[in-house]
Design a protein that fits this description.
It is a single chain. With 438 residues, the protein is of the alpha/beta class. It has three domains: 17-25 and 241-372, 3-Layer(bba) Sandwich (FAD/NAD(P)-binding domain); 33-128, Fumarate Reductase Iron-sulfur Protein, Chain B, domain 2 (Orthogonal Bundle), CATH 1.10.1060.10; 144-239 and 375-434, FAD/NAD(P)-binding domain (3-Layer(bba) Sandwich), CATH 3.50.50. 35% of the residues lie in helices and 16% in strands. The strands form five sheets. It has a five-stranded parallel sheet, with helices on both faces. Strands 6-13-7-8-9 form a five-stranded parallel sheet. It binds flavin-adenine dinucleotide (FAD) and iron/sulfur cluster. The site of iron/sulfur cluster (SF4) has 15 residues, from helix 3, helix 4 and helix 8.
Length: 438
């Protein structure tokens, strides 16, 4: 029976290992070569293809699909990776339903797009299983660039800079690379330790060194990096989360959703991970959906996402909301929490309807807060815009020789693919600037 009292609280091991393995297997199983050929055949190879315009990394989608359909998956992967070195991860995590596949002419005409994401995964998987790294570095420039953060933005910047002949040192606070690819993305989107395998593959380009356990402000400073290196790129992401600022937030089993997902991603045995019986997730973005779905898949009896605005206004796409509903997650819209109730641990949450000022309560023994991430108070003497680092169209900050990209900047959506695009473009600008081209 559901256990929703503060006496109980989250439990581990509700499901047996076989059910857990099944629940956390690939969300979209990969295509085999026959399925890939059939899927590729549906592409019209459009001139001025709208899918390309919709891709933040401008991958030549008709070209890579044609290369699959003509039996050249390795060449196809090269087309993808030329533009997006984390094309393997993006194939797994991109919200394609709001990007390339939404723009696909076959989506517009028939409501059934070409499966661009799965085809990208097919090609990149083939290439990454071939031992060779397909890129060769240009002759050395003798320039040294420091990168703060080994997330998608930092890794994409590092690869492009190394490719162009520069030497790169990445400093990251954690003990593992990948940023949110490793600690945030839902477990069923990135299975079989793919994030680590992809970084190991990326580093085969050479010329990139990663120093782990190095925290900006404690172990090094921006001014120190500027003295030691020719340029600095900041890809530190958003290390902090918003709080609800209501009574009861410090009760036991009130947890930040990113922290919950991070423990899940790092768990050696999912059966040991504690999850409530009645889980309430507050928020409306990808993090809220991922936390809710994963709670359900871990064995929570009842999971409800509560969002302060309407279904249509939710930042998570309707596709993601439907996915969560298909796993048994419930949604309550137009409601905001006003009090978390309990003595030691949480037992219920009081909400107010944002449209007609009525109140209601939900029993809860685990509350996951997913109301947005914010920047850490980084000791950076850089101008801010909307509480993030201010950059120009080339990702240059207002301090000489310092660039920034990814979630920590004030431009672009907070998506893996956007972070990759910004890291890559900043790197191209850094290289051009150091080599005197601009
Ligand atoms: C739960 C969750 C699920 C998500 N799911 C998706 C998804 O399905 N699809 C999608 O496209 N996007 C998703 N996103 C968004 C995506 O993960 C981010 O947009 C992307 O990771 C941003 O990359 P980044 O390199 O800018 O930052 P991050 O990935 O956050 O990497 C920043 C790196 O900097 C390091 N760092 C931070 N501060 C310091 C410091 N002071 N000193 C040294 N190192 C530091 C960190 O350790 C980290 O390695 C999700 C985000 C979350 C939180
Ligand atoms: S829009 Fe669709 S059909 Fe046209 S090139 Fe892109 S994937 Fe192919």
């Amino acid at each position: 029976m559901p256990n929703n009292s503060e006496v109980g609280g989250p439990l581990a091991g509700r499901l047996d290992p076989i059910s857990l393995k099944k629940n956390f297997s690939d969300l979209h199983p990969p295509l085999d070569s026959h399925e890939a050929a059939v899927a590729a055949d549906r592409c019209y190879f459009c001139y001025d293809a709208p899918c390309v315009t919709a891709c933040p990394t401008d991958i030549d989608i008709p070209l890579f699909i044609r290369q699959i359909s003509t039996g050249m998956p390795v060449a196809s992967a090269k087309t993808i990776l030329d533009q997006n070195i984390l094309g393997g991860m993006c194939a797994r995590v991109c919200p394609t339903e709001t990007l390339c596949e939404e723009a696909c002419v076959r989506e517009k005409a028939e409501g059934k797009p070409v499966q661009i994401g799965l085809l990208q995964r097919y090609a990149t998987d083939v290439l990454m299983n071939v031992d060779d790294h397909p890129f060769e570095r240009a002759p050395s420039t003798n320039k040294k660039i420091a990168i703060v953060g080994a997330g998608p933005a930092g890794l994409a910047a590092a690869h492009r800079l190394a490719l162009l002949g520069n030497n790169v040192v990445i400093l990251d606070a954690k003990e593992k690379p990948g940023g949110l690819n490793e600690f945030g993305i839902a477990a069923y989107k990135s299975t079989n330790d793919f994030a680590q395998k992809e970084v190991a593959w990326l580093l085969k380009i050479g010329g990139i060194k990663i120093n782990y356990g190095k925290l900006l402000g404690r172990d090094f400073s921006l001014s120190g990096l500027r003295d030691e290196y020719d340029a600095v790129f900041i890809g530190a992401g958003l290390g902090n989360v918003r709080s609800l600022d209501i009574d009861g937030e410090s009760l036991r089993n009130v947890q930040d959703a990113v922290e919950f997902i991070s423990s899940l991603r790092q768990a050696k045995d999912l059966a040991e991970l504690e999850v409530g019986s009645n889980v309430v997730v507050i928020g409306g973005g990808m993090t809220a959906i991922d936390a809710a779905v994963q709670s359900k898949l871990l064995g929570a009896y009842d999971v409800t996402v509560v969002y302060r605005r309407s279904m249509e206004e939710m930042p998570a796409s309707l596709y993601e909301q439907e996915l969560a509903k298909s796993k048994g997650v419930k949604f309550i819209y137009n409601s905001r929490p006003v009090q978390i109730v309990g003595t030691e641990g949480i037992s219920s949450i009081k909400f107010q309807n944002t449209q007609h000022d009525t109140e209601f309560s939900l029993p809860a023994d685990h509350l996951l807060k997913a109301i947005g991430q914010i920047m850490d108070e980084l000791p950076l003497e850089l101008s801010r815009e909307n509480n993030k680092i201010k950059v120009d169209e080339n990702f240059k900050t207002d301090v000489a020789n310092v660039w920034a990209g990814g979630d920590c900047t004030s431009i672009g959506e907070d998506l893996t693919v956007t972070a990759v695009a910004q890291g890559r473009d900043a790197a191209i600008n850094i290289h051009a600037s150091l080599s005197g081209e601009i």
